TrEMBL record:
Transmembrane segments: 100-122, 398-423
Family statement: Belongs to the CD36 family.
Residues the record marks as site: Critical for TLR4-TLR6 dimerization and signaling: Y423
Record keywords: Cell adhesion, Cell membrane, Disulfide bond, Glycoprotein, Golgi apparatus, Isopeptide bond, Lipid transport, Lipoprotein, Membrane, Palmitate, Receptor, Transmembrane, Transmembrane helix, Transport, Ubl conjugation
Membrane disposition: Multi-pass membrane protein
Database matches in InterPro entries: CD36/SCARB1/SNMP1, CD36_fam
GO biological process: cell adhesion; lipid transport
Name of this chain's protein: Platelet glycoprotein 4
Position of the Glycyl lysine isopeptide (Lys-Gly) (interchain with G-Cter in ubiquitin) cross-link: K429
Reactions it catalyzes: hexadecanoate(out) = hexadecanoate(in); butanoate(out) = butanoate(in); tetradecanoate(out) = tetradecanoate(in); (9Z,12Z)-octadecadienoate(out) = (9Z,12Z)-octadecadienoate(in)
Amino acid sequence: MQHFYLCDLAYFSCLISNTLLTQSLLTNHTETFAFLKLHHVFTSYFIANFYPILVRYLAKKNIVQDPKTHTVSFLQPKGAIFEPSLSVGTENDTFTVLNLAVAAAPHLYPSAFIQLILNVFIKRSKSSMFQKRTLKELLWGYTDPFLNLIPYSTPTTVGMFYPHHNTSDGVYKVFSGKNDASKVAIIDSYKGKKNLPYWPSYCGMINGTDGASFPPFIEKTRVLRFFASEICRSFYAVFGAEVNLKGIPVYRFILPSMTFASPLQNPENRCFCTEKIISKNCTLYGVLDISKCKEGKPVYISLPHFLHASPEIAKTIEGLNPNQEEHSTYLDVEPITGFTLRFAQRLQINLLVKPARIIEALKNLKQNYIVPVLWLNETGTISDEKAEMFRKQVTEKINLLGLVEMILLSVGVVMFIAFMISYCTCRSKKVN
């Protein structure tokens, strides 16, 4: 009888585990496939004390399954809708911000002769180091008066996310996991490539998933790897804490402070340091130069308020107040299915501003500055409706499995004790 109950325990455990595993695959009629198709996030863009909220829908489109290679391909739409009810101010409010075209000019055109010509157009357009723009213009693009005067074939529209608004990112090709569950949602290729051309060696590898989900049965010791196309590199997150999200137990994985560390602090980051002057021979930390993947524009990425950055970077900027809780990135992942049920991605977009003796708008600068333009807080949380559905289809099954295991184990222990008592009693009688 003892053997019978242990078999029942294994049967129930395998039955529920296999059901959950099946629903974790990226194939038709599974929970993961449905999860892949519909997801949205809220994005807050912080400029001084002005923070409008935009809703960005992450409903992946053009989803195509390939049963031969066990992969799924899709596009990720880019764009957002302004949400006035959640925002402070409107997207048409104006504020003073760095002049993107003027600030980037010395970096894009180091030649003194070209800078002399550019200075003429900058003065004629009455442009300076700073300008007044609306948030809508800053994010999605505006016609720059300085660039508009240049009589050559030069793009005249400037914006932090121009020209990517209302476009699509990809194609992403990910594994469905049908032949290997440990590969569920792992990216096989991005835009037909397995590596990025911007970084040498392993830094250019496209690792992990897109962050929306991970292979099932996640343990706390696992390192979660994910790819962020807008930053042109892969990242990783480590276990931070157990969290309860709307009645669902999840693991919180956090982006470690060593992510943007210098090669001196983290030797694995050496191949992310591609220049020696601004980085002071790769000793600065807390910022990442992504100009190579931004068409040469001097864009630097950091955590908000230069969290975990070199003091010499932050000391030239007033009003910074880095906070670990408010400015860190995390993923709340349900460990059985691997679904990311809540996340917060916090990043700051900065521009390198260099002194330029010939360009009058920049000639008074004494050193190089990495100047914050804005920082974004992109968050997404499972809805109450989907959370209730998840609890019924996943959490309750897991709880049932735990209950069945406890009952069967208890019965097995009781029967084993009864058997041992009976055995000892019979043996004692035989001896007597």
